[in-house]
Design a protein that fits this description.
The complex is a heterodimer of chains A (about 220) and B (about 375). Chain A is α/β, with parallel strands linked by helices and about 220 residues long. Chain A is built from six helices and ten strands. The longest helix of chain A has 18 residues. By secondary structure, chain B is an alpha+beta fold. In chain B, strands 3-4-9-6-8-7 form a six-stranded mixed barrel. A two-stranded antiparallel ribbon of chain B has the order 2-10. In chain B, helix 1 packs antiparallel against helix 11 and helix 7 packs parallel to helix 11. The chains are: A alpha/beta (about 220), B alpha+beta (about 375). Chains A and B meet through helix 2 and helix 3 of A and helix 8, helix 9 and helix 12 of B.
Amino acid sequence: MLCIEAKGLKKEYADVDQVIRVLNGIDLKVESGEMICISGQSGCGKSTLLHILGLLDTPDEGELKLLDKAIPKSDKEMALFRNQAIGFVFQFHHLIEDLTASENVAIPAMIGGMKPSKALSLATKLLSEIGLSERTKHYPNQLSGGEQQRVALARALVNQPSIVFADEPTGNLDPAHGLEVFSLMKSLNEQSGQTFVIVTHDQRLTNFATTNYILQDGILIASN
Amino acid sequence: MVLGIVISVGILSAGMNLFEGYETTLRSLLLDSIAHINVQSSYMSYMNEDDTLIIKRLIADNKDIVSSYWTLSSGVIAMHDGHVRGSQLRAYEEINGVLPYKKYVSTGKSTPSNGQIIVGHYLARDLGLDIGDSLTVMYPQINRLSAMGLYPSSKDLQIVGLYRSGYYELDRSLIIAHKSDADALLSTASKISAYEIKLKPQSLDKADHLAKSLEQQLGVRYLAVSWMQYNQGLLSLITMEKWLLFIVFSFLVMIAGLNVISTISTVMYDANSEIALLLACGATHKAIGSLLNLRIAVVCIFSVVSGQLLGALVSWMVVKQSFYHLKGDVYFIDRLTLHISIQNQFIIFACAAVIVLMCIKFPLSQLRKLNVIQILRYR
């Protein structure tokens, strides 16, 4: 099944005295269970593409289908779709400082309507699966950078989404922790068959992907 | 934010409690110590005691009337030890052995005999008098003839009681005498000044109607004047001042409301990373707005209620303090009183709640303008 199908996505931003076209007709097809990496120079539009694919942003032109369905129109339907079908991992973990690791992980499940007690037990189970069973009651500032990003990954996976979008997930980590997080994503991809779309600068990590793309001049080019 | 709301609502509430207390006390003292309908001669002259029989007959079956009695009164001069005060001399009809002012006699006898008087508390104080002392009362009209010529009548009368109603105008000027002494001073044997009628509290608003009806029945010789004609303007003015004060103090709550706007805006700015994350995780703007709205609204409503309690406490303390007293000659009464009206408290609560809830709505309406992508990417 086609998990992501994008045709002719275009996006431009108005700068002070010029219009910058960041995406200039992106065509992309991602099969279910694939793990793709998108790389490119800074400012080439990788994150913009990811946000459009993840329904956080809208394209100026083009068509987008996720899970073979047209994009929901209303704010409520879009939020529901994002909650159930999409998981996000950001460069900055964006963990809520006042909540423990397990509470942070449980957020999307609770937004989806799950009872807090059930969501917390699911979050604890998920944290154990990624090797953070001893850290469930810790607050973000008590965790290392790698642990924080693993908690953020668990948060993205708690609702068992079909697609996980990761925007520079290792950009804020040292090489060793970066590799650790990437390995974890790869193993989760292989175990659960979830689709991963990863934007990264790190060329070492592109070896984990099933398909690699380079975004250049607003066009997506397959590199392997 | 909380403190701002508590203090502003507290000031509003305390102001209203004290003003309501002032209005209620003044109204109550005024209506308790004066006649509600005053029947007098149309020709500005004295009436005969027999005239009261006609009036008594007319009002005999009226269920709105609680009591009625004649009075003899006139302006006099009170003199003692070189001090002089303009006063009001009054003699009252005794009904079944009870005089209408009895409950206001704070000290001494309540029924003056011949040669005795009851004087207002402040009049006695100003002249340095006490019970047992003698006061010279002079009627300032030349109506006596002697070998030396015409001279005004005067009488030395012994003080047997002190009158204190709380209504300053009476407390500083009233002299209640026996009818025979009043007659001797005013040269009014078997004459009276007016026939006074007191109404039941629930019938006070009918005073105008009753006065007109009585006037029609009595004919042109008599004039019936209701308390409304004398005092309604004053009471209406005080009520208007109270609501003006409410409007002015409501601006303080509005200023506290601006503080709510700035606080929520700051909170939203500080938490925009969390808000953006919740939106990315599938929360709707509406859901986040409702969550914030509910929590802040609960805090604000709690603050409003706390402000009302603070207002009650402050107004109670103001009433209990002994450093400041009202100037009776300016404000008619000399003490501050407290009256917590449920209706006023409800109005304060409703207005303050509406103001702060509107102030919550404004920053939360900016939630949709949050640039989720920028926040998630760069913070």
